Amino acid sequence: MRKFLIAGNWKMNCTPSEAALLLEGIKEKKGEVSEEVDVLVCPPFVSLSMAVNYLHETDIQVGAQNMHFESSGAYTGEISASMIAESGCNYVILGHSERREYFNEDDELINKKIGQAISNDLAPILCVGESLEQRKAGEQKMVVGKQIRAALEGINTDQVLNVVIAYEPIWAIGTGETATPEQAQQMHKFIRDLVSEIYDSDVATSLRILYGGSMKPANADELLSQPDVDGGLIGGASLDADSFTEIITIAEKLS
Ligand code: PEP
Q: What residue owns the CA closest to ligand 1's atom 6?
């Protein structure tokens, strides 16, 4: 059985002191997590080391929200995979729709980042998802399929075992609108079948596919109950210690 991964994407929220308070709340409520669930928080870069140190004796892991595709060099303001890894992180979110939209990240760039993350022992959380317009036109499978094929281009079977995919319909991110459990399951199954086609059924079976898009305590149970939903990438609700830890508890109960 796959292990759930409950990951919090804090986005550009929380100064270091605010981050410390949020971590304190999470640690107080959920410093110990069932072995059946992996928990991850992804604060802004400036709080990564602090979060790693603070969570050191808990079961909670720390990840970054982005990184550059080169290993080092003249890229003012950028952060490399090795910097993130040496800070004690295990994961990095890549290809989030906000980065695709506001920072013009395309599939080719995301593919380079995936390779760089894996080379530095960071597990990439590859975000994919369609816009509302694309969903209305019935293009969601075509769009997500193209994003996945392009992002995983040249990534071999051993390497892909480190990858987590997050299906995040753009129309459900930060909008309060959630995909129905059936819509989520349909897309997750499509993604698993696609990965089986690109690689093999063993890879597809062990691949973790997270749902992201307004997941909260009120809808986590029905989403996480779907057979191909292996966890959640949580934005807004991860900024509230009660909500985030409640979702972890729901995942623990379903394990
Ligand atoms: C996200 O940003 O990955 C996300 C899913 O956000 P929210 O939960 O706020 O919709």
A: 235
Cα(43) to centroid(ligand 1), Å = 13
Sign of CA dihedral 236, 41, 157, 185: negative
CATH for 11 = 3.20.20.70
What's the number of domains the chain is made of? 1
The model carries a pTM of 0.97
- Distance from Cα 73 to the centre of ligand 1, integer Å: 32
Ligand 1 mutation pick, 128, 234, 239, 240, max ligand atoms within 8 A of CB = 234
SS3 content of the chain, % helix, strand, coil (to 5): 50, 15, 35
Structural domain range at position 212: 4-254
* Residues with a known catalytic role: 96, 168
Instruction: Count Cβ atoms below 10 Å from residue 189 Cβ, excluding itself.
Output: 15
- Ligand 1, CB cutoff 6 Å, lining residues: 9, 168, 173-174, 212-215, 233-237
- Tens of pLDDT, residues 41-90: 999 999 999 999 999 999 999 999 999 999 999 999 999 999 999 999 99
CB 65 within 8 A of CB 11: yes
DSSP letter assigned to residue 240: S
What distance in angstroms lies between residue 198's CA and the mean position of ligand 1's atoms?
A: 28
How far apart, in whole angstroms, are the C-alpha atoms of residue 103 and residue 140? 22
In this predicted model, what pLDDT tens digit does every residue of 202-212 receive, in sequence order? 999 999 999 99
d(CA 78, CA 147): 24
Ligand 1 atom nearest to 236, measured from its CA:
9
The pLDDT tens digits of the residues spanning 93-143 come to 999 999 999 999 999 999 999 999 999 999 999 999 999 999 999 999 999
